[in-house]
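Quick illustration, no need to memorize.
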Amino acid sequence: MARKMEVTARARYVRVSPRKARLVTDLVRGKKVGEALNVLAFTQKAFAKTLTKLINSAVANAQQNKQTDVDTLMVKRISVDGGPTLKRFMPRAQGRATMIRKRTSHITVVLDEQ
């Protein structure tokens, strides 16, 4: 009998703001892997491509583990945490400058068998 085993994949320092990334991750949380990849294929957000790569990486990690059945995998947990913010300045009127925050994210995907 095969044991249930969680499989994890992480992407760190991804150049997307956590708020925008959470919009896409909320679409696939709790779905089967095939269904999640199908939803992402038709999502018109730039982050959907990165998330597709990350889910495929988690599936590849599951294939390395001989005890998991790839066809029964589902997205158990998916989280987006804020990473370091790059601070840049933009010149403004009358010699002033305003700060531009280029945010980054750490994304964690956990797959599990049903």
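Strands lie at 7-14, 73-82, 86-91, 97-102, 105-113.
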